[in-house]
Amino acid sequence: MRLGQQYAALTLLLLALWQGCVMLHVLPPQAIPAPLTILQQAWTDHALYADALPATLQSVGAGVVIGELAATIVAIACIFSQASELALRGIGIVLYALPPLVLTPLLTVLLRGAQPQVILAAIGVYFPVLSATLVGLRQIDPRCADLVALYGGGKRALLRHVRLFAAMPTLLAGLRMAAPAAVLGAMLGEFGGGRPGLGALLLSTMGAGNPARAWGVALVATLLSVVLYALFSIGSARLRHRAVPSLLALSSGLRARGVAATHPARLVAGTLASAAIPLVIWQAAPSLFGISPILMRTPSSVMTYLLEGPDAAEARQTLLTALLQTLPLSLAGLAGGLGCALVAALLVSLDRQAERLVMPPLLFLQSVPLVVLIPAIVLVAGRGIGATLLVACLVTFFPAMIVLMEGILLVPRAPIDMLRLYGAGRFAFARHVTLPAALPFLCAAARIVAPSALLGVMVAEWLATGTGMGDLLNEARSTLDYGMIWSVALVTVVLSTGFYVAVEAAESLLLQRRAGGGSLLKKPSLSSLPNIGKAIGP
Amino acid sequence: MDASGPVSGGVAAIGIGRRFTAAGTIVQALDTVSMTLSEGSFTSIIGPSGCGKSTLLRLIAGLDEPDEGSISVLGRAPRDLHAEGAIGMAFQEPVLLPWLDVYRNVTLPLRVLRRAARNDRDQVMALINLVGLGGFAHFRPEQLSGGMRQRVAIARALVTNPAVLLLDEPFAALDMLLRRAMNLELQRIWLERRATTVLVTHGIEEALLLSDRILVMAAGPGRIVDAIDVAAPRPRDISVLTTPYFVSLAQRLERSLMAGHPCA
After folding, report:
1. 3-class secondary-structure state, position A59
2. A88 with A77: CB under 8 angstroms?
C-alpha cells in the first residue's frame, strides 16, 4: 500500500528528527532521551521485559478472549430479547463509565494471581465489542428478514445466515478499537502489586531516575497495542466487505435503539433504571457469593461508613477534598481535548484530501494507550497540574477527533455547491453546514471520552502528583482501608454514570430539536459503509 | 371480479383489507381487494406510488397478514407454503448478501430450508445459466453490474422451483435499454418455468409485454379499478407494442391509471 509506505517514511523521518534534536541539545535528554538511547536501554533491560511482557501478553490474550465471548453472547441475547437488552445496557454503561483503575484494588482484594489483570482487560474489551457487534447484527436490510421468512426461517435462521456474517466486520472493528483498552486494563490490573508485568514495570520506573527506561516501557506497551490493532486490522481486511466506522459505530451502538425518537426524560429514566441494576447486584453480591462483608462492602455499608461510622466525618472530608482535586481537572481536560478536537476536525474538513490523509494516523494514534506515557510526560511537564491536564487532554483528543471526523465525513457534499451559488467559500461551508452537523457527534464524543479523561487524571494522580482520587485509592489500598476503597468506587460509579446519562440526554435533546439536522446526514447504512471504510480503513 | 372460479394452483384473494397506523392516523392501504390468478398465469399489478401494490405482494407472499378477508395460494394459507419453498420473491433492489458469491447467494433459500444443496449443483448451475450468468458463479455481488445482480436475485427466487413467483419492481432501478432486455429474459425464463407470476410495476410497456392480465390499482384507499386481459401469443417481441391491438390496450391502461391517479 503506497499510502502506508508514505506514512512509514514519515514516521522514520520524525524519529530521525527527534534523534537529531536531542543530539543538538534542542530537546533536553534527561526529559526526552533520543530514540537510540531508548533502544539501547531497552536492550540492557531485556531481562526485565522477558519477565514482564509474557505476563502482560497472557493477561491481554485471556482478557480479549473472555471479553469478546461475553460481548458476543450478550449481543445475541439483545437481538433476541429487548428486555435483556435494557437490563444488560445498564451493566454495560457502568462498566464503560467506571475508570478501571478504581477496580484494581477491589479486584486484588477479591481475587488472586493474574485474575484481576485478566478481568480488567476483559472489561476493556467487553463494551466496545458489544456495541460494535450490536450495530453489525442490527444493520441488515429488512428485506433480508423477508427473504429468510419466505423460506420458513425465523430469528435463529436470520441470525445464522445473515446477522452473524453482517456483524463480522463491526465485531473486528470493535476489537480493533478495544485493543488499547485491553492492554491498558491488564497493565492497570498489574498496579495491584506483586506480579510481574508491564504495569508493574511502569510503576517501578516512577522516580527511578532512568528516563530512557520510562520511555522504553511506554513504547513497548504502545507497540503491544499497535500489534494487536494491526492483527485485528488484518482480520477485517480479509473480509471482503470490511470497513465500518469505528467509534461512530460504537457511539450509535451505545445508545438504545432510536434515541433520537425517545423523549429525553424517558431516556434518562430508562437508563438510570437499568444503571441501577449493577448496584443491586453489587448490594447482593457478598451474600450471594459468600464473600466476606469486611472485604467487599456493599453500597449500603459504604453509605453507613460515610454517614454513621466512627470516622465518618473524617472520611467524608478526605473524599470530598480528593474529589474537588480530581473532578475539575477531569472536566477541564475533557473540555480541552474536545475543544482541540473540534477545531482540528473543522480545520481538516476544509480540505477533502486532508480528511482522507488524516484518518489513518488518527486511528493509529487512538490505539496508543496514552496513559502509559505518564512517566514520560512527567519527565517533560513535571509533577504538577500541567502534566495531569496534558494527560487528560491527550487521552480525550484522539478518540474525540475520530468521532468528529467520522461525523463530518457523513456530511453530504451537495450543499457546498448550493452555498457556492451565493458566493460562499470553504469557511462559510464549515460554519453553516459542517459545524452544526458535527454538534451531535461532539455529544457522542463527550460521552465516549469522558471516562478516559477521568481515568487519565486518576492514573496521573496515582503515579505522579500524589493528589486527588487516584492517590486516595492508592493510599487506601496500601493501608487496607476497605471502607475508603469501596467509597471511592461508589462515588466514581455514580459520578461517571451520571455524567454519561446527562450527556446522552443532552444529545437526544439536541437531535430531537433539530430533526432537520439529523436528516442532513446520510444515514450510515450498510451500503454507505464501504465508502466510509475506504476513507478510514488501514 | 372474475368468473373463472377458484383455481387450486393459483392465487385467490377475497375481500382483503389492510390498515397501517402512521403518525397516529390510520391509513387504509388496501380496501376489499379481490382477485383470482390462475395457475401458470402472468399477472402485472400497476398503479401510482402508495396504492398498496407492494403491500398486496407481501400479503400474497405471507410476509404480512390481512386485517380483513382471506388469501390463499395453491389453496392454502401463504404462510404454510414457506417451509416448502413454494414462493419465490425478488425485490426492487437485488438484496444480495455481499459476503457470498453468486452460487451461494442463489442457493441461500436451500440452506434456510435445510435442503442439501450438493446434489442440486447441476440444477443450480443450469439455473445460473438460465439467467445468463454462466461463468459468473464464483463472482461476488460487488464484482457484478446492476443488471447482473438483479439476475442473481431472480435466480435465487427460482432456485426452489417455486409454484408462485412474486416480483416487486425488480427492474425499476435499471436504465431503459437494460430493462427491455431483462423483460425479454424474464419472458424466456417464465416460458420455461411457467410459475404463477405476479409482477408489480410502474411500467406500462413492461406490463403489456409480459402479462396475461394487468390489474390497475388506485390509491387512497388502495383498490383494484380495472383488469385488462392481454390475449396475444408468446414469445412477444418489443415490436408488438406498436401493433394496433397493443396500442389500444395501452390507451385503455393509461385511462384507467389516470382515473385512479390522485393528481387527476
Report:
1. helix
2. yes
Q: What is the distance of C-alpha B64 from the center of its chain?
A: 16
What is each CA distance from A479 to A105, A306, A475, A476, B152, in whole angstroms? 11, 18, 6, 5, 70
**Residue A509 pLDDT grade (very low, low, confident, very high; cuts 50, 70, 90):** confident
DSSP annotation of B44: E
Specify whether domain B42-63+77-217+228-256 bears CATH 3.10.20.340: no
Cα–Cα distance for residue pair A472/A488, rounded to 1 Å:
8
Which amino acid belongs to residue B52?
A: G
CB-hemisphere CA count at 13 Å for A300? 7
Element housing B21 (H / E): strand B11-22
**Terminal C-alpha separation, chain B:** 25
Give CA–CA dist A429/A418, Å, rounded: 10
Domain locations in chain B as residue ranges: 42-63+77-217+228-256
Which of B243, B245, B186, B188 lies closest to B44 in space, CA to CA?
A: B186
The span from the CA of B102 to the CA of B86, in Å, is 21
Pick the residue of A150, A155, A160, A238 with the most B CBs within 10 A to test the interface with B by mutation.
A150
**Which chain B residues touch A146 with a CB distance below 8 Å?**
58, 61, 63, 89, 91
Amino acid at B225: V
C-alpha distances out from residue A484 to A106, A278, A476, A479, B186, Å: 11, 20, 6, 10, 76
The model carries a pTM of 0.80
- The answer to whether the CB atoms of B82 and A151 lie below 8 A apart is yes
Residue among A141, A149, A239 whose CB faces B82 most closely: A149
DSSP letters for A90-108: HHHHHHHHS-HHHHHHHHH
Q: What is the ipTM of this complex?
A: 0.84
β-pair type (B11-22, B25-37): antiparallel
Q: Does the beta-carbon distance from A151 to B89 stay under 8 Å?
A: no
CB A120 within 8 A of CB A187: no
Q: pLDDT tens digits for A433-492?
A: 788 878 878 888 888 888 889 988 998 898 888 889 999 988 888 888 888 888 988 888
Burial class (CB in 10 A: 0-12, 13-18, 19+), B146: middle
Identify whether the C-beta of residue B96 lies closer than 8 Å to the C-beta of residue B145. no
Task: Give B 133-152 residues with CB within 8 A of chain A.
Answer: 140, 142
Q: Which three cell numbers stand for residue B146?
A: 446492476
Q: Could you give the CA distance from residue A501 to residue A178 in angstroms, rounded to a whole number?
A: 22
CB of B181 within 8 Å of a chain A CB? The answer is no
Query: Residue for cell digits 384473494?
Result: B13
At which residue does the C-alpha cell 447441476 appear? Answer: B122
Distance CA B134, CA A319 (A): 74
The answer to whether residue A521 scores a pLDDT higher than 60 is no
